Amino acid sequence: MDTNVYKKPSLWVAVLSVLFLFVVLFAQVLATGSPEIHITLVFSIAFCTVLLMATGTPWTAVEEGIMHGCKIATIPMMILMFIGMLIPTLIACGTIPALIYYGLQIINPSVFLITAAVICMISSLCTGSSWTTGGTFGVALMGISIGLGVPLAMTAGAVVSGSVIGDKLSPLSDSTNLAAGVCETDLFAHIKSMLYTTVPAFIIALVVYGVLGAKYSADTIDTSSVDLITSGIAANFNVSAGYTLLSLLPLVVIVGMAMKKISALAAMVAASLVAMVIAIITQGYGILEMMSFMNYGFSIDTGVDMVNSLLNRGGIQGMMWTLSLGYLGLSYGGILEKTRIMERLIDSMATLTGNARNLIITHIFSSIIVNFISASQYVAIIIPGRMFLPAYKKIGVRTDVASRTCEDAGTVTSPLVPWGLCGVFFAGTLGVSVLAYAPFAVLCYVTPLVAILYAVTGKFVWKEDGSKDVGNIIAEEEAK
Predict the structure, then answer these.
(1) pTM for the structure as a whole
(2) 148 neighbors 215 (Cβ within 8 angstroms)
């Protein structure tokens, strides 16, 4: 059924539906600091449903919203499950142990955070997937950080920042293609426009990581811990040069399939199977043992507790906590979308879009709000993008500015949403809560600030005819 036949709820209903979630979440975090927000989301869904039905919205609209949210979640959650399957195979075949082993010997602690961000940026740029990067290089970098004595939260923040910028600037990224399509923009014009906001933000992030990493040096490394980890890995995995190169083959498969624009789901499965074969041949595991690893996570007793904690992870079952949170978050967001609550909230901001500066700033804040209440970067791109696109056209601002703003606010901030798809993925994969890594995911909050700065100053936002930037448009509007 077309949900437009449903009457929009009043503004007070829309505000209360969203406010309840944030008040309860704030109270929970303040009282316990716990990321266990599953039941909080259930209560929020129940409150929203009762409020909507009490004010005239039929149950069918709520039900459609739940189904819509679950539909949005299905492919990302399948990818999450397959990453859960991929991680233990990469450990078993020696990929992640080798990366940790050599990383501890090569990387200087003072530049580790910078190195982590750059490595993840390159990986995401090649694959078009921040999730694939987080589940491969991200996991290995978390292991290296333990040996170097760098806090896990800092490392997770650097991994997220690098993964996100690479994803945004990759023509292979689904969200990048979506933003360009939603705003009727050429893909490469969209990517070129994003360079103006994401590159300065990434440079700022690298400077911050350089400052944070300055306190860590070769002199501060606990060499006994490093020796313990490397010897523990070497005793249980073949880390010779030849075997190490062979263990990197699954990563080559992922990058190759991504560049051929083959489904991420297919790439995860193919890489897992290749890693499984390598593990059976080179590490001596049996096929039933590998199947158990894929399901329940890798398991080994190396005799070194630190190495055990690094490597005993992954598995489809290990992702169920994250999956359930994702489905609940998307169900809540689907209700808000299909019952037209988000539409009502954005409508209330229409008076703020009379000029270019206000339009861009309003678009940024709307996308961030939609991101937090819908738990989906895709919804945060689509709804504000389509609703504000006519306003960009009306005042003559190029559509690549609109598409860039979709990403600067909707996509880039998605890892900061504890119950959102990206937030639950990175927290589940890296083993660090969103609340812990968020302060160090510098790119995720600096990018929208850079976009706001451009809107205020009128730089790097252009008219359709290419004659003026938005600074001139604002000057003309104010003169009138």
Answers:
(1) 0.77
(2) no
